[in-house]
Amino acid sequence: MFESNAASPRLRPRLRRGRRLGLLSLALAGALAGAALNAGAPAEAATVTITNRTQFRDTAGNVLHAHGGGIIKVDSYYYWFGESRNSDYSFRAVTVYRSTDLKNWESRGNALSQGSASELASANIERPKVIYNRSTKQYVMWMHKENGKDYGEARAAVATSSTIEGPYSYRGSFRPLNQHMSRDITAFVDDDGTGYMISAARENYDLHVYKLTADYTNVASLARSWPGDHREAPALFKRNGVYFMVTSGATGWDPNQQKYSTATSITGSWSAWQNVGDSTAFGSQTTFVLPVQGSLTTSYLYLGDRWGPGFGGVYADSQYVWLPLRFPSNTTLAMDSSPQITIDTATGEVTGATSSYSTVVNRNSGKCLDVVNGSSENNAEIIQYACGTAHNQQWNVQEAAAGYVNLQVRHSGKCLDVVSSSTADKAKVIQYACGSGTNQQWQLQDAGNGYLRVVARHSGKCLAVTDASTANSARVVQAVCDGSTAQQWQRKTA
Ligand code: DGJ
């Protein structure tokens, strides 16, 4: 038994409650429409676009919950394992999804769930990572295990399966070498087949690399330690004979500066920590680095979590930030902001894409969809205003459900919303924190000549400028669709 002395995740102080200003991009609705995979038949990989700082959806249209996760490639599929939690943040399952292109993810159910073992019925499981043992032909899942109430247990847990999707058999939890606290965790298999587990020890002050036993299900020895550096969220990968350890600082759910260290031997010597990315990893925390090996190249894809509680939401609101890593030299790492990235798993190319925010211009007035006074508040009215370059006129169109999109405004990150889900004619259109309501979901219908009708899902009414006004500050409302040009809009790249 261990004393519980860490705060519950939901009671942890939010260090930065402030709203994160948008890096959200305008994505072409067509590019965002998920193409369902035929079960059992790998789809042809092609270039796909991922929009960062969004929730992803699986091929059935459900929000994809695989947080703190890791990806392993087996035959033609990438398998993504990650956290799914109950609304009280406790463990629900380790989910597993598969994809050939890293965009279209088919849910394959739960690899491990609350019912898998008695100690998982009321628990917390974080950062599951699966590695494959070529000798035993077993898939081995390493996880961080807590009691579901606080972070006092600080244990590592193991589950195994002879098939990639599982279900995995839970093998129990423990403190490595019977002594070390073990929180944020990852696992890594070296070229020579040696397995390693890396986890945060001593209240996250120390980071440990453990060599695993030959079957990967237990810890054999402590191979390396970073005492006192206070790093968590480890991700280890190897490129051209150089090991890169990417980590975050320890600030609860809030993003912070990610740092990396390199070595040519896993036991060291390791370089001093160096910064990678901006001071918040573009609003995210490391969970994994995935080598994407293709016919032309191998790219290294940073997988980050943008935790919901870090931007004023709850855990289930958590989003993803995936970015290509750059290597200015064999031992240095860089990561740039990219609202969208493109991935081609066939060639291995992963590239940052330029921003594609757009203005949304009314056909009748030539004026732009605008959040009044650049307000960041919920309920701020939407008006039309002379087009400019301000971010309160720049919108990111993202798929919200099959055939429907959200329009998220760049300056506030909030969504175009019909007030109080009203279905009334001339009901006000506002900005509001993005959610799953159908009053934030819009259908873009072709109105000809490059113009669109923007139709609210919940009401079937059209986005319109009040009384077909051409004046600055005229209110934007929903109105019965009538085919007029005051109800037609054009997206123009900002
Ligand atoms: C940061 C860790 O990296 C996450 O996995 C999670 O434990 C949160 N802290 C909880 O605050």
Q: What's a concise summary of this model?
A:
The protein is an all-beta fold and 494 residues long. The chain has one helix at residues 29-32, and strands at 48-51, 67-74, 77-85, 91-99, 106-113, 124-133, 138-146, 155-161, 169-174, 185-189, 195-201, 206-212, 219-226, 232-239, 242-248, 258-263, 274-276, 285-293, 298-306, 319-329, 332-335, 340-344, 349-353, 358-362, 368-371, 382-385, 395-401, 404-409, 415-418, 429-432, 442-448, 451-456, 462-465, 476-479, 489-493.
Fold and architecture overview:
This protein is mainly beta and about 500 residues long. The chain has 2 domains: about 50-350, Glycosyl hydrolase domain, family 43 (Tachylectin-2, Chain A, 5 Propeller), CATH 2.115.10; about 355-494, Trefoil (Acidic Fibroblast Growth Factor, subunit A). The chain is about 0% helix and about 45% strand. The chain has 1 helix and 35 strands. It has one helix at about 30; strands spanning about 50, 65-75, 75-85, 90-100, 105-115, 125-135, 140-145, 155-160, 170-175, 185-190, 195-200, 205-210, 220-225, 230-240, 240-250, 260-265, 275, 285-295, 300-305, 320-330, 330-335, 340-345, 350-355, 360, 370, 380-385, 395-400, 405-410, 415-420, 430, 440-450, 450-455, 460-465, 475-480, 490-494. The chain has a 4-stranded antiparallel beta sheet with strand order 2-3-4-5, with no helix packed on it. A 4-stranded antiparallel beta sheet has the order 6-7-8-9, with no helix packed on it. Strands 10-11-12-13 form a 4-stranded antiparallel beta sheet, with no helix packed on it. Strand 20 and strand 21 form a beta hairpin. The chain is elongated. (2R,3S,4R,5S)-2-(hydroxymethyl)piperidine-3,4,5-triol binds near residues 184 and 233.
